[in-house]
Amino acid sequence: MKSNYRPIGDFIELVDVRNKDLRVDHLLGLSITKEFIPSVANTVGTNMSNYKIIKKNQFACSIMQVRRDKKMPVALLKDFDEAIISQAYPVFQVVKEEVLSPDYLMMWFSRAEFDRHACFLAVGGVRGSLEWDDFLEMELPVPSIEKQREIVKEYNTIVNRIKLNEQLNQKLEETAQALYKHWFVYFEFPNENGQPYKSSGGEMVYNDALDQELPLGWRINELGNIIESHSKKHDFVKDELIFFNTSDILNGDFLHSNYSDVAGMPGQAKKSIRKNDILYSEIRPANKRFALVRIDAEDYVVSTKLMVLRVIVSKINHLRIYQFLTYPKFINKLQRAAEGRSGTFPQITFEEHLENHPFIIGSEDIESRFLKFLTANYSQFFSRRDENRILAQMKGVILSKMSKVEYRKTEEVL
């Protein structure tokens, strides 16, 4: 045992308060990402009196299947004064908060090193559960409470900035979706007098292909005439490349930038990509495994399970196509189509689901104005995404430095 470390069990105690009088009805679950989440359990007919009450600044954890999941789910309740959780979760609290800050302890639980250690100790059962006594014997350094608060403050500054960026990006996404629907679904874009076009009597023309009316001067084209599914094989002139599978992209974001030995890459690592390509998973569209390539990508190779969509018409911008392909209603349509196909996974193909899909093209003025909006919108969106990636790295640095903080004397801790 390191001389500057103490067992977690020196600082915490179990809490077991049941919801006997059914006073608390806010039910929470516990996620593998170490957060409390709204419970999705079916509680119809369930006796809620046996559920555990958890209060603010108390922890809940799961010690089951730690080795299988390679994480120990544990979370600190901060957003509610009290809630109820499954009786399967141990609930515990810090004995003396003037000695150990709950927020500081939660930071320690958030470290990758903590999860690796918990996984190493988890040997119980088929899936590898962690014994409670082994959890109590896991160690951490405890500096002065002043130092703990300083570390927590620095960490929370970064966490809060990340949350703010995520909230602002959510607003940007909602604004883009709302504007698209207003202009290209309801056709209420502003006319020359600034009035909503359709409801102000703007001229509409029936379109046979869509079986609906379009504004005068608007037209449709098939996506296959605007984009292609690029399938050129990578040349593999380097020994190491960055490989993206479907699991390596999510909702517009690339989840890593790690180089791998070409010789060890899976057989589906074949396709080359370039800047402004749109990567779109063929599997389960609802999972939002898509991303826009925003950098020169000579060192990237992607899976054959990712469609590489490339704009081939000079008058249509890649952002316009990206916004259309990631519009929630369009994603839902693709998901329904995927689920209707036979096969192991709900899957789509370019030829069957995208190539002949109609794409509405507005007047030159409307397309220009919408693109101007999209350019500004995505500029802010991706800028915040990039900032959050840097902030996440800073979070990791702070967590890694926790093992090097100055430790309090033993008599001050006990």
Would you count the extended β strands for me? 24
Name of the top-level CATH class of the largest domain: Alpha Beta
Shape: globular
- Widest beta sheet: strand line-up: 2-9-6-7
Under the CATH scheme, which architecture of the largest domain would be assigned? Alpha-Beta Complex
Helix content: 25-40%
- Using the CA coordinates, give the radius of gyration: 27 Å
By DSSP (H or I, 4+ residues per run), the number of helices equals: 10
Oligomeric form: single chain
* Class from secondary-structure proportions: alpha+beta
Strand content: 15-25%
Report on the biggest sheet: 4 strands, antiparallel
Can you tell me the residue ranges where pLDDT is under 50 for at least 5 consecutive residues?
Answer: 410-414
Could you tell me how far the N terminus lies from the C terminus, measured between alpha carbons in angstroms?
17 Å
CATH fold type of the largest domain: Adenine-n6-DNA-methyltransferase TaqI, Chain A, domain 2
Word description of this protein:
The chain has 414 residues and is an alpha+beta fold. The chain folds into three domains: 6-142, DNA methylase specificity domains (Adenine-n6-DNA-methyltransferase TaqI, Chain A, domain 2, Alpha-Beta Complex); 145-188 and 362-414; 219-361, Alpha-Beta Complex (Adenine-n6-DNA-methyltransferase TaqI, Chain A, domain 2). 33% of the residues lie in helices and 21% in strands. It has helices at residues 66-69, 102-109, 112-121, 132-137, 145-185, 318-325, 328-339, 350-354, 364-401, 410-413, and strands spanning 6-7, 12-15, 28-30, 36-38, 52-55, 59-61, 74-76, 82-85, 91-94, 139-140, 204-207, 212-215, 219-222, 227-230, 240-244, 249-250, 253-254, 259-261, 269-272, 278-281, 290-292, 300-303, 306-311, 358-361. The strands form nine sheets. It has a four-stranded antiparallel beta sheet, with helices on one face. Strand 16 (249-250) and strand 17 (253-254) form a beta hairpin. Helix 5 (145-185) runs antiparallel to helix 9 (364-401). It is globular. Residues 410-414 have low confidence and may be disordered.
